Structures are given as structure tokens and as C-alpha cells.
Amino acid sequence: MSENSSNNGYWSANMRIISISLVIWALVSFGFGILLRPLLSGIAVGGTDLGFWFAQQGSILVFLAIIFFYAFRMNKVDREHGVDEE
User: Fold this and answer.
1) For residue range 67-85, what is the model confidence (pLDDT) as tens digits?
2) Phi-psi region of 8 (alpha: psi -120 to 50; beta: other; left: phi over 0)
């Protein structure tokens, strides 16, 4: 496999992971916290409605989970393409 083909595969995998992560975060923060908030207002979580919870806490927690997911997946991609740090 040529180096250019390997680089393209590495960056393709990287961009796919980033794109998926950004779509999930946008759906949770903008979708659940703003657009779908009226639909989620009847569901109680911790003394408030679910839409407010997503706007205040849920998007932050999902963002933290995405950071750990990205680090885990990129370590795997790095190993597959021979650019890992270990």
C-alpha cells in the first residue's frame, strides 16, 4: 500500500469519527435542548423537565463522553495505520 493511500485512509477514518461525533453533539445540544424541548417538557428529571436538563447538563455530559469515545477510537485508528504513540 502506498503512503498516500495510507494517509488518505487515516484521514478518512479521522474525519468520519469527527463527523459522527459532531452530529451526535449537535443533535443532543441543539436538537434536544432547543428544538425538541417542548416535546420533552412533560418528562421530569431531577426536579426539572428533560429538555431543560439536556440544555443545561445533558449536552455537557454527552460532550465529555464524545471526548473519551474520540480518544479511544483514534488510538485504535492510530494503531491500525502505524502512527500510534506507544
Assistant:
1) 999 999 999 999 998 888 7
2) alpha
Instruction: Tell me the residue range of the domain where 29 lies.
Output: 3-80
24 found inside a domain: yes
Residues 59 and 77: their CA atoms lie apart, in Å, by 26
CA distances from 33 to 43, 46, 57, 65 (A): 13, 16, 10, 17
Residues 6+ apart with CB under 8 A from 34: 55
Residue 13 lies in a domain: yes
How many domains does the chain divide into?
1
Cell numbers for 70: 474520540
**pTM score over 0.70:** yes
